[in-house]
What does this fold into?
Amino acid sequence: MLLPVCEVFSSFLPLLMEKDMAMVSRQELVVAQREDPSLKEMFSEVLAPEEVASAMSCCFVEDGLLLRKLLSGRVVPIGEPYEQVVVPMSLRDIVLRWAHGDVVGHLGVNKTYNHLLRYFYWPQLKKDVRRFIKTCSTCQLTGKPNQCLKPAPLYPIPVIDTPFQHLIIDCVGPLPPSKSGSAYLLTVMCQNTRYPAAYPLRSITTRAIVKAMTQFISVFGIPRVIQSDQGSNFTSHMFKEVLQQLGVKQNQSSAYHPQSQGALERFHQTLKSLLRAYCVELKGDWEEGLPWLMLAAREVVQDSLGFSPNQLVFGHKVRGPLALLHDGLKEVSDPPQGLLQYVEGFRRRLFLAGQMAKENLLNKQKMKRLFDRNTESRVFCPGDQVLALLPLPTSPFCAKFLGPYTVVRQVSEQNYLISTPERKRHSQLCHVNLLKPFYSRFSESEKAPAAVAIASSVTEMAEDVKVPEDGILQPRLNNSENLKETG
It folds into this structure.
């Protein structure tokens, strides 16, 4: 038995709980249907009243109003046909707002489409539903639990070049104060050889960092490039002035994306683990044990290179605790060598180690190709609207997609500068993995049109869309860590 038109309207009215609704009478709806060119084909397929009962799906007219009968086991329970109001083009966005909004929830495409089919229909309904949800600001900001933003393809792995030409620097802390009052570490790593260094600091002011960097440079020379994050101590005028005087180029990694300094971030994890174990097992001062822990860290073979940092820098295995035990058990010593013989052997070993490290890095390109199968390239142009995964101003340890923001320019292959006028920093350098395109709905760029209700009587309603605060994503936090927590 077909549902009367009045029941269709009355069953939908509870969803319209908004004020200031501009109402459309039944007669106005009939006129809008007749004047809509997209409904001409449906009018041409209208069946006679006596043929409607036996048809599974058809169009028919009742008191001048174009309706559609739907009887399908896939959408409607068998024996309960739906009588759908055919919506003209001028009212479709209004109906879509009712079907996908606060009243019924921001559901997905299929659920919204099936819900609409109970009451309304128009040609290419599902396509319009998909477009409407794709451009929904609330859905773009909060996302869906089963929707993950695909990462961008991996950046090509650089093949090993001259050591100590490209340095990565960062700060770790605060740590438990040592006996000398140190609570921070400045870490420095050669990008090519992965050779690490760590310098205890009482504070991480620019002056203290420059002083520690001087110690490193006095041993390994002046680099060509220094890469850092966007910490205030690395972006200060003093730090930039020192690098300029030394002829060093500074590269800054994108904000809230520690993968940009991946090699050094992984070393931080190893170093923290070593410091924690030293404090727990030996009950000692972490600063006293730091030199020995660094010796151990430099002896570890790097998976990406196939050699330890010591081998790539010094051309031979540095004698550590295991070598000391090994030599003591064998009770042998290496025969003395002449200066020329030593230099020749050193150069040969260093050359072979560099060549083999290059081969290992080239083999890692295969892993990049495998990873890139599940990635998605995203390119933005200046002026594009994007959403950015940024910390919340009221809760810096939580992050969610905010925006939309405007892309200012592309800084590198995977980094973009975006305009963030309402934040403390009016512009932000972001990795492409923290950005996703914002799809704007044309009608939302102007003043929102008055909502229209299709009913047999006049009722006042209103529209109020709230952005839910759930769906918070947890980013990787900073390097601060209390080593005493595991004691």
